[in-house]
Amino acid sequence: MRNFNKRMKAVLLSGAALLSLTACGSSDQTSASEDTIVLRYSYASNSQPVIDSMQLFGDLVEEKTNGEVVIEYFPDGQLGAERELIELTQTGAIDFTKVSGSALESFSKDYSIFSVPYLFDSEDHFFRVMEDESIMEPLYQSTADLGFVGLTYYDSGQRSFYMVDGPVNHPDDLKGKKIRVLQSETAIRMVEMLGGSPTPLGSDEVYTSMQSNLINGAENNEFVLVTAGHGDIAKYYSYDEHTRVPDIVIMNQASMEQLTAEQQQAIHEAAAESTAFEKEVFKQAVEEEKAAAIEQYGVQFNEVDKAPFQEAVQPLHEEFKNSEEFGELYEEIRNLGDQAE
What we know:
Blueprint: H1 2-29, E1 37-43, H2 48-64, E2 69-74, H3 82-91, E3 96-100, H4 123-130, H5 133-141, E4 148-154, E5 159-163, E6 178-181, H6 185-193, E7 197-200, H7 206-211, E8 217-220, H8 223-226, E9 236-243, E10 247-252, H9 253-257, H10 261-297, E11 300-303, H11 307-312, H12 314-322, H13 327-334
Parallel strand pairs: 1-2, 1-3, 6-7, 6-8, 9-11
Antiparallel strand pairs: 3-10, 4-10, 5-8, 5-9
Helix pairs in contact: 2-10, 12-13
């Protein structure tokens, strides 16, 4: 643990140093206006619709503030993986990042609700929840005392199993299989309940881990197949659709507070508009990714009877439903479900 902490400290210090140097460079570019505020946005590797949405956010911020606030980007994991980027945002070394909601679980337990398998009845149910301020605003503010808050969400689609050796048609097909999962306690328990052996890994470790047989498969949306190249090894993608975990855009709290009320409003408006755009382009991009995965790698997609999977993870639902900590939030989400209409 001591060595891990040393490595983490080194990552943070190197990241902060890089940002300091780059910030100095960016001040030269914006020297025409001494009042220009440059905010730094770093993110890990992402699908093109998400990258385009994050870029649109910056364009809108600059437009809405008449150039008073501009966004500088550090893309493709230049400053670290999601955990490091959250910590850099927390300390103020960067001002924004976009991460999976599951990556926020260790900072706010409230985000673990999204890792409950089959929490949402459908895509429409998911969107109803994500756009309900009474549910999402407390979640976004749950990390305020840690130095950052949520701004908005991006659709990250459904997550299903994809494997090297063959399709997953039933939970029995996961028995004895080593499955990469997010660093989420709930995701780990889900795979255990389904009979698999969960292996938490960073996204940048998945390809080589499958290649070396360290893991037999993973779970994610379709974009890992071509965008991350995993379809080169894992040829079987099975639509069990166990979770819909949103991406969350977070911002350093102190960076927000340094802005005027009008600039803060521009940040919130730009965030919401970038989300509306991402929702429009994401679904079409998924279909294009699937077609490319079939053409380039020969990936096979198969539909799955979800009932055995849902039955296997039902104990997780009961735990959250009856939990003093999560029960109210769980019921609020379920009450917006398709069957509640």
